[in-house]
Each structure stands twice: as C-alpha cells, then as structure tokens.
C-alpha cells in the first residue's frame, strides 16, 4: 500500500512562510532532509523531534519522490 504523503505534509503561508512541514508541527521537510544529509539516523530524528513518527519520516521521502517525478527540482549543471 502506497503512502499518501498529503496526509502528513502540508504547506500554509502562515507557517514558516509556506514551506512544506509535517502536519501539526513547524518541522519542515527541508530540516528533515538536512538532518538526513548530515548523517542523522531515523532514530536520532525521532528522539530529537518527538511530535513526529516513522510514518511522517516516510512521508517526507514520498513527498520528495513526487517532487522529483513532477520535475520540481533544480537541474544540476554538468561537471567537467
């Protein structure tokens, strides 16, 4: 069964200037991605941010997958 990220992620101009966040929090998708890129594990994130759960983390990546699929990303320039 595919996870519907829309049940977990939303954007509201009144919260963090409209950045996508985990519903019911001010925890942005961007923050979660930054933590993962810095080497944080799911366990570290969940312990540090108790309002979110494992399904919320999966929703962040489902959201990102849809963004890439819909080409809502910044193209990378070629490196020589």
Task: Provide structural commentary.
A two-stranded antiparallel sheet has the order 1-2. It has one domain: Arc Repressor Mutant, subunit A (Orthogonal Bundle). The chain has 80 residues and is mainly α. The protein contains three helices and two strands; from the N terminus they run ββααα. The radius of gyration is 14 Å and the shape is globular. The longest helix has 16 residues.
Question: How would you describe this structure in keywords?
Answer:
mainly alpha, globular, Arc Repressor Mutant, subunit A, 80 residues, two-stranded antiparallel ribbon, 2 strands
How many DSSP helices?
Answer: 3
Which class in CATH terms?
A: Mainly Alpha
Give the strand content: 5-15%
**DSSP, total strands:** 2
CATH topology: Arc Repressor Mutant, subunit A
Tell me the CATH superfamily.
Winged helix-like DNA-binding domain superfamily/Winged helix DNA-binding domain
CATH architecture annotation name: Orthogonal Bundle
How are the elements arranged and paired?
Blueprint (H helix, E strand, L loop, with lengths): L8 E2 L10 E2 L6 H9 L4 H7 L5 H16 L11
Antiparallel strand pairs: 1-2
Summarize the structure.
Helices cover 40% and strands 5% of the residues.
């Amino acid at each position: 069964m595919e996870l519907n990220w829309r049940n977990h992620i939303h954007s509201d101009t009144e919260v963090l200037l409209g950045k996508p966040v985990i519903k019911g929090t001010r925890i942005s998708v961007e923050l979660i991605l930054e933590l993962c890129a810095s080497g944080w594990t799911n366990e570290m994130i969940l312990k540090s941010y108790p309002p979110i759960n494992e399904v919320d983390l999966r929703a962040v990546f489902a959201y990102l997958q849809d963004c890439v699929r819909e080409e809502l990303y910044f193209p990378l320039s070629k490196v020589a």
